[in-house]
Amino acid sequence: MAASPTTLPDFDPRQVPIAAVDIHLPAVPRAALTPEALRQRFVAPPQWEPEVVLEKSYASRSPARAAVLLGIVLRDEPMVLLTERTAHLSTHSGQVAFPGGRADPEDASPAHTALREAEEEVGLAARHAEVLGVLPTYVTGSSFIISPVVALVAPDCELNPNPYEVADLFEVPLAFLMDPANHRRHVFESGGVERQWFSMPYQDGSKSRFIWGATAGMLRNFYRFLSA
């Protein structure tokens, strides 16, 4: 699920200049990114504050609850599972996103929503995901109140992306995303309103993956959680 200012006129996030890069902040040590270290961090979390919790609104609609799966695939190097949404979708088309979506009334918890949506979107069976915990909610400019659910994903899981929603499925090293030297800050003004967000561009072989907006904001909060 992606959530970023896609309805702003003449807006291409890739063309917005970089305001700053946080090279002064330390990367999360690789020893803190192992499965056992991640489990322990959620068992005994530190005192910390999320850095990004609320985007400036750009849509006049009622708030809606949603959840996404911040899935860490346990390969030789831990990898974060991400999707590229199809171009024909009515909202956030073509954007990089976590699997996830709107909560249903019968969902028992954000974890239930995230796992259900992940199975619907990318074919990830719940039995292959070990939920570690839930990060603080992130409110998007499109009025989604998103709960990021962090889970460890078995490397031998079989994925089957829904072609209607998912144009591509890919993975990015967790260490890359947890290094602020790869976190770019952007500032954009439209209609007298200044908006700020992070981006984390990643070169995936011959493909350039532009991670930005809410997806990047939730990853930034995850960095704050792991580095606290």
TrEMBL record:
Signal sequence extent: none
Gene3D superfamilies recorded: Nucleoside Triphosphate Pyrophosphohydrolase (3.90.79.10)
Domain Nudix hydrolase as annotated: residue spans: 63-194
SUPFAM superfamilies (UniProt xref): Nudix
MF terms in GO: coenzyme A diphosphatase activity; metal ion binding
Pfam families cross-referenced by the UniProt entry: NUDIX (PF00293)
UniProt keyword list: Hydrolase, Magnesium, Manganese, Metal-binding
Cofactors that this protein relies on: Mn(2+); Mg(2+)
Alphabetical list of InterPro entries matching this protein: CoAse, NUDIX_hydrolase-like_dom_sf, NUDIX_hydrolase_dom
Source superkingdom: Bacteria
The protein's name in its UniProt record: NUDIX domain-containing protein
